[in-house]
Write a structure and sequence with these properties.
It is a single chain. By secondary structure, this protein is mostly helical. The protein has helices at residues 2-16, 29-35, 69-72; strands at 20-21, 50-51. It has a single domain, classed as NADH Oxidase. Helices cover 35% and strands 5% of the residues.
Length: 74
């Protein structure tokens, strides 16, 4: 949980500095450990790419589409 709090603060500070970011959770942790030569005691929980969004990027049109509440809550 502490790592998630740190990651959130990193993303907030990046935004404060005008840098765009995204939280990535769907990745192969073992491959990340291999590529970055991380010790076995380190468990990657997220990847946070940093950069600048294309000025013409309008966003994913599916981002605002939500399922009806009845489909997600029982």
């Amino acid at each position: 949980m502490d790592a998630c709090i740190v990651a959130t603060h990193m993303i907030l500070e990046a935004t404060n500095l005008g840098v765009d970011s995204v939280w990535v959770r769907n990745f192969n942790a073992e491959e990340v450990k291999r590529v970055f030569e991380l010790p076995e005691t380190v468990e990657p929980i997220c990847i946070i790419p940093l950069g600048y969004a294309d000025e013409n990027y309008k966003g994913n049109p599916l981002h605002a589409i939500r399922k009806p509440l009845e489909e997600t809550v029982q």
